[in-house]
Structures are given as structure tokens and as C-alpha cells.
Prior knowledge:
By secondary structure, the chain is mainly α. The protein is built from 10 helices and no strands. The protein has one domain. α8 runs antiparallel to α10 (166-182). The two termini are 25 Å apart.
Amino acid sequence: GRVVMILLGFGKLTAGLHEIIAKRFDVNPPWRAFIDEFKGYMHGKVTPGKGSLVLKLHDALSGTYNVDWREELEYISPNCFLYLVERFLILVSNFQGCLFTTKSSFIEWFICQELDISPSTRLVTDMKSSVKGAFDFVASIVQQLLGNKCDMMEWIKKSDINLDYYPHLVLRSVVVICLLCLN
């Protein structure tokens, strides 16, 4: 989770660094596909019809969320996961030509824009028809996060995060719901 957070926040990778990161994700094909797609977008080598960065991120997030995290030795932390959900929401919202987000998320997104990623021009245009489905996906995740405090507390504890983080996670989840409504 942290590696993908850094990747999304930083942007461009050298070919060597990309290979090192990508090899670590060989055991997780959805995330490997996303990282490879992201590299293509960052270097302008992705052509329409070959898949979408947004769809790859959706697949990776969906696969990650639907795994039985109690059985996993290393599982994404709730703060990393929610960060990635927020970034997914930004990418999806961008298809509408207007997006609402938090200041910190906007700044990271804008920096990435400066590094040659332009979702409005490079992402597959048929994603526009999938915006509602993507919003439903995010709403479903946040509903589950907010609706099951015991599991959430267990996930926080398993991630070696102080349990005092729970109210912060709830607040971030509520902000995501608000952004969904605005977008």
C-alpha cells in the first residue's frame, strides 16, 4: 500500500526503479498490472484500447478489499487503503470535467499532472460510462468501513496502528462520502 501511495504521489519512475517495484508485485497480478499501466501513462506509451489506469486501479482495490485480511500476513493498512480509494475517486471524478476533493489530495493530483499524467486526454474515454459504477464501488467500501466498527478496529490493530486512529478513519470516510455526493 505504501509503495503505491508513494508512486501516485511522486509520479515518474526510472525504468530501473519501475522494474524493482514491479517485481515485488509479481505475487499480486492486479497491482502489478496497475503499476505497469501507470508507468505507461507516465511515459506516454499507453494507447487507447489497451486498458485504463482507472480500471486497473479499480481491479487492484477491489481485489485487495475482498481478500480475507485476517488470513494475510501482510495486508494493506486502513490509512493506505483509504488514501488509494481517495486517489481512485479523483481519477474517476476527473472524467466529468470537474472534480471536488480535499486540498491535500488536489495538490498531490496537481503535482502528478505536472509530471505528464493527464487523465482527461490519455485515459480511455469509455470510462465515462463507468463513473456511476466506480462511485457505487467507493460508496460500498465506505459503507462497509463505517458500518462495522469491530472489524475496523481489528484491522487497525492488525496494522500496528494505535486504536486512537479509528475516529480519524471515520472522519476521512465521511469526507469521502461528502466528495462522492459533490462529484
